[in-house]
Specification:
Rossmann fold; six-stranded mixed β-sheet; four-stranded mixed β-sheet; 7 helices; 21% strand; globular; nucleotide-binding; ATP binding
Length: 259
């Protein structure tokens, strides 16, 4: 036993590294075996020039009986501005892109018919919360996260941001003006990414930055007072609202004639 130890002790750590690699590769193989409909992504070489192209992309954690796949390509823009009704699928779509990108970078099969993308430095702005222990309000936490994103985009040209409903912790006027200013700054920094928002006025930014910003939306269909969601990504700005219907469902009527 001592002879074996003296002979191989210098190789033990290398053996552990080899075992870890085997386990990692085995896990990726099992992942593909358990999700036979998934496809392997194509990783592109140039994050500054190459674009995302996804066909039949969907979230891997949504049951197959409920999931809705979407197509997306960033070939003609750098920032996708996604507007839409409440519960229509905006946030889920951003998470779908993010989680499948992480799977692709890990070498795993992705939940898509096809998916090609360069290796981006992914950064996200989602579910920002206050922190009582640090005496940080929701708005301050949002500002801290947004500063991190702006700083990252300014330094790393290969970054890709996923921003879900920014500046929720302030009033509607400052929220709109601040969101507009942030998106414009991200564009001027040559940033790439996606922004989901309820502020439909922000869709006018496509006219200011043609070729840089492109509008997408998720909408609903109302039938006999019932909201029907198809969870399909569509080109253009959202034209249908549903907050009043949702409020009506809990017994609150909105006076639409009020100025």
């Amino acid at each position: 036993m001592f002879d074996w130890k003296n002979k191989y002790e210098n190789e033990i750590l290398n053996s552990f590294d080899t075992l870890a690699k085997v386990e990692a590769v085995t896990s990726l193989a099992i992942w593909k075996r358990n999700h036979s409909s998934y496809s392997y992504p194509v990783i592109l070489d140039n994050p500054l020039e190459n674009k995302i192209d996804a066909q039949g992309l969907y979230h891997p954690l949504i049951p197959s009986s409920q999931v809705v796949a979407n197509d997306y390509s960033s070939i003609d823009h750098r920032v996708a501005l996604v507007t839409g009704s409440n519960m229509a699928g905006k946030s889920t779509f951003l998470r779908t892109v993010g989680i499948n990108a992480i799977l692709a970078y890990a070498g795993a099969a992705v939940a898509a018919t096809s998916f090609q993308l360069p290796i981006y430095k992914l950064i996200s702005y989602m579910r920002i919360k206050d922190n009582l222990n640090e005496s940080t309000s929701t708005f301050k936490a949002e500002l801290n996260r947004m500063k991190f994103i702006l700083d990252t985009v300014s330094v790393h040209s290969d970054s890709f941001f996923l921003i879900d409903e920014m500046l929720r912790g302030t009033n509607s006027v400052d929220k709109y003006l601040g969101s507009r200013a942030i998106i414009k700054k991200l564009v001027r920094l040559d940033g790439k990414g996606m922004v989901a928002t309820h502020d439909l006025q922000l869709s006018s930014l496509q006219e200011e930055f043609p070729g840089d910003i492109k509008n997408y939306h998720f909408d609903i269909r109302v039938d006999a007072g019932q909201m029907l969601f198809d969870y399909k990504l569509k080109i253009g700005e959202c034209k249908i609202f549903n907050a009043s219907l949702l409020l009506k469902g809990i017994g609150v009527d909105i006076d639409e004639n009020m100025e």
